[in-house]
Automatic annotation (TrEMBL), chains A, B, C, D:
Keyword rRNA-binding in annotation: no
Highest taxon above the source species: Bacteria
Residues annotated for ATP binding in this entry: 11, 74-75, 105-108
Gene that encodes the chain: pfkA
Ranges of residues in domain Phosphofructokinase: 4-299
Cofactor: Mg(2+)
EC number annotated for this UniProt entry: 2.7.1.11
Name by which UniProt lists this protein: ATP-dependent 6-phosphofructokinase
General function of this protein: Catalyzes the phosphorylation of D-fructose 6-phosphate to fructose 1,6-bisphosphate by ATP, the first committing step of glycolysis.
Locations listed in the record: Cytoplasm
Lineage summary: Bacteria, Bacillati, Actinomycetota, Actinomycetes, Mycobacteriales
């Protein structure tokens, strides 16, 4: 009988609890001879051997809860003084854990890979709200974020139309514009601005103006990582001392006054923020999380240490950590081109 | 046969379209001999005689749509150069409209009262997201805003719990804290900060700390109009030139770094903003809007010019404009006291 | 220091947990010197002295959960062999409980009144999905049910319009048509059929036909307790043996084939059923439940045994059991008349 | 300049309007020289040349609306007297339409293929709530149905837990159990019953009993096409005349009383019905529909008559009708096995 420890690391994400539950239910099926325990607050719990009991009753009803019952943190297993493979091996031995199941994003998978290469049996489950992991078609959490962002677009449009305003919605996506692209398409935005494709203020204002000229209220969805030529300058203001200083606020709050000034259309920004990543997961994310969870014991039983699960089409597949980490999946330009063709 | 013109003025609000539909359906019942027309963009349409056709097909299915099909604006019938009672009377005569149905907030009702006193037949329907009109138990829009804000609280809590963060949610409410109070109670916030009851930073941090000490993630809901002693100073920063200058951002963004610094608990602010006021109205707001709408033709048929509708208990009642305007309904201190007793 | 026991009885209802939490939070405020315990499964737990521990951690986060953490049943404290006041007094003494807080509908309040008259200190909190208690403006659970039913109307309308079908939705309401009335008004139904106002099949079909003739898909909302002249006959079929026998199914399933046959319009029935009463409560119901909960310790502290809480306007008030029980609050005919005027 | 006609056929499905909008927006991009028109009510409009104007303003805001703005029907282009290729060709010529875009399920694609083989330029977009088309990973509408069914599971569980009842939810899926499988997994059902895998009443009752024995309320999700050995007999009752006669009601209503009788656990059935297929589409379904819509003009521009679009992984691909029709995609047994391992 083997005992494995689960950790969730990095930003929280709807679907984490479904993965945990999917894994733990295995201990009741009799298919494998495994039991499971949770590490508290990500790699912190791994390094200090702080665990949470995980049996069937501990995971009852959790797949519909946001966040993670294990807690999470940005604690790095190699960067913190008490970390490192030797300490972790000792901790695992002390608490009687035979291997690590790491659920997290690209950074977590890189750390998991290093643990694996340092001789600690480790498997991974990919997680990112932003959907920007190359190795998998989709990650859980993304679907929920898109649903929430789309509802925000739907709500803002009615205000925009009633007041003839341009509404700008800033959504997550530092390196890839997936949430902006999906919620913008779903909500019928007139411009979708993503990091993959910088656009000039002139172009953005041309889109906005053309919508107004058709008698509609322009709706702009912008990913937080979008940039435009001249942004830095626009994003600063001259102090009384004559020096330029950066303004507070994100890209949405930078763009709105520029659009308003250039087009003469009253413009309002909304920053969706943390609301995108918490709360009840969509059914899709619960299913994806559950399927990843079901697949973990199988992966371990097959001796698949050093591998990460991924979704390809409708199948759960396995990818070596080494092939998975470090590749950001951005929105392909032809996908963007399709959407762009109908802007304005 | 008489013809009446409907206008919606001020900020948009879920339920406006239900009122419009409720009124217009009257023209099909044969109960009264009235027809209806809409004024474009609030008092602007009244002053310039710009109207929108309103028959049964124009209002089909609109009660479930946010915003207002008539458009709205903050155009004042007395403050704009082309306004004033004489011009408005001429416009009404020219387009053949016998009376005005004004749907709006306190400012709109005050203007409607002035129109009435200047001899223009006018009735009113109260509207405010903030629920701060004294004359009525509830206004439509408020319920939808509370549902949206509560969902945000629910979502933020899971993130807070996963990361052991303090989450601060800023909701609408410049003069009254109704949305904060209701969404905070519904979401189980550990502190609800409202304009009616300034609290010191020490008190807020004591609540936050006591939650953390119980092992929970503190959830703070704050109305945009909340203030605390020393807020102005806290809300500024010393420039390189040695002068203090106001920071951008609302109360949520002011409070979060202060809480973090004082308590040592990582703290994040979310500003709900425009999402609170757009989109599909709750069933409650559609019913309240519809009932107000049904009651307007009756009010006019009874010659009730100069009056506004209101909700008292489960009844739609009538209140003279003169009694209704200028009274802000704030959260009573004993209501706040009940909630405050369980903070922290 | 006194100790009081809470029970939830009858059908489950969104908002019950908010009441329980609201009461229990009192024990932490220091305002009163009370502690609380739960009775398992309604009056069953009272009779058998089966309790559930209720401290702050037991009620954490429950106000957003449907159902009741205490369990519920239709067990009657007087009708079951082990019940009766003497047994109950003994059970209370044995487990050290000084008074009973009964949360339930009309039947529960009647039983609570009898307990009170038999010398057992008892207070009540009203609960019914159907909103048919005369003593209170609204009960929690009703608002959630209306939101769910309204979403169903919204969904069915798009199917009806696409297929040019008449859609019939059956909602709860055995003795009063509140859910049908509110969800029908909110969803813009073309006919709302309630127990308070039997309508003939001819009348119903006239409404349905007039909608079709305007090119729309008729939407009918019917409360389960609605009847029409000749219903019994329609609701039976002649067996091979020549005898009439009742058909299975509720009023929706009875009406749909009759409407289809009489009007020639394809007609489909949907029975919403249990979905109306479970799951996440609306913010409104959580607030109402919480306020009732807050008011219970105060009521007890004031010695208010034999009384029930109620909502009047925006106030929580107190009503003697004797005045509250046995009065069904039906939809007033003038309310129905307003809605009826726009049918068809 | 060419002109193409769009039709939607078969049951309505969330996402249809997103497809229509996606296609029509092409006419504004200048990428192709195409214009579009809609056929009324599916193949009926094709046969009789009844069209609906489709320009940008006609498709404004429709992607968030359920159903289809074109109307739909089960009218068959070959089975109806006025149908057949010659009549259709004449109709197309008369109204100046150069090709047909058919959006529908397996039957629609089969008819589209026949039209294509009979010389009428036709392309297809797959549509089915049930997700049972082999050629595509997912169809739009399925995701929305799963979200709705999952919310129903969530709601029913709280009622089940409060009353210690077994709750049975019947969802769509005549030939394939995808909706049951996904909503059951997402909602944490204790048994998921699908057409692909008949289970005995003994097995079902063993699952139900084991849940009860753990102190939980059993939740069963059953697809409408599920069968069990002996079902026919169970589904009939002996009349006074001594003959067996089929009972009304679907599989949920058949199973519930059997479970109750066999296990002694109070059991209630809910039939979700039409609610699953109407109303606001999920963001996912709007994106999938929009992407299909964007891909249609490209497909036509490439001369891809006789082909259907499909989703493979994250790509929109093309499949000849001949390869696509007639293959039902059922839930693979290993997928079912994963879920089954945790039942009870």
């Amino acid at each position: 009988m083997a005992r494995y420890g689960i950790l969730t690391s990095g930003g929280d994400c709807p679907g984490l609890n479904a993965v945990i539950r999917g894994i733990v239910l295995d201990s009741d099926t009799g298919l494998n001879d495994f039991t499971y325990v949770g590490f508290k607050d990500g790699f912190w719990g791994l390094v200090y051997g702080e665990t949470i009991n995980l049996d069937r009753s501990a995971v009852r009803g959790i797949s519909k809860e946001g966040g993670t019952i294990l807690g999470t943190s940005r604690f790095g297993p190699y960067t913190e003084p008490d970390g490192g493979p030797d300490n972790i091996k000792k901790a695992l031995e002390r608490i009687g854990v035979d291997g690590v199941i790491a659920i997290g994003g690209d950074g977590t998978m890189a750390a998991a890979n290093r643990l694996y290469e340092d001789g600690i049996p480790t498997v991974g489950v990919p997680k990112t709200i932003d959907n920007d992991l190359e190795a998998t078609d989709y990650t859980f959490g993304f679907n929920t974020a898109v649903e929430i962002a789309t509802e925000a677009v739907d709500r803002l449009r009615t205000t925009g139309n009633s007041h003839k305003r341009c509404m700008v919605l800033e959504v997550m996506g530092r390196h890839a514009g997936w949430i902006a692209m999906y919620s913008g398409l779903a909500g019928g935005a007139h411009a979708i601005l993503i990091p993959e494709s910088p656009e000039s203020v002139d172009q953005i204002c041309a889109w906005v103006t053309s919508v107004r000229d058709r008698g509609r209220a322009p709706m702009v969805v912008v990913a937080e990582g979008f940039t435009f030529p001249g942004m830095e300058e626009a994003h600063s203001h001259k102090g009384l001392d004559g020096f330029n200083r950066p303004r507070l606020g994100g890209i949405g709050e930078i763009l709105a006054p520029i659009i308003e000034e250039r087009t003469g259309i009253e413009t309002r920004a909304t920053v969706l923020g943390h609301i995108q990543r918490g709360g009840v997961p969509s059914a899709w994310d619960r299913v994806l999380g559950t399927r990843f969870g079901f697949a973990v014991p199988e992966l371990i039983a097959d001796g698949g240490w050093g591998q990460m699960l991924a979704l390809r089409g409708t199948d759960i597949v396995r990818v070596p950590f080494a092939d998975a980490v470090g590749h950001t999946k951005t929105v392909p330009l032809d996908f963007y081109g399709e959407a762009r063709a109908v802007f304005g």
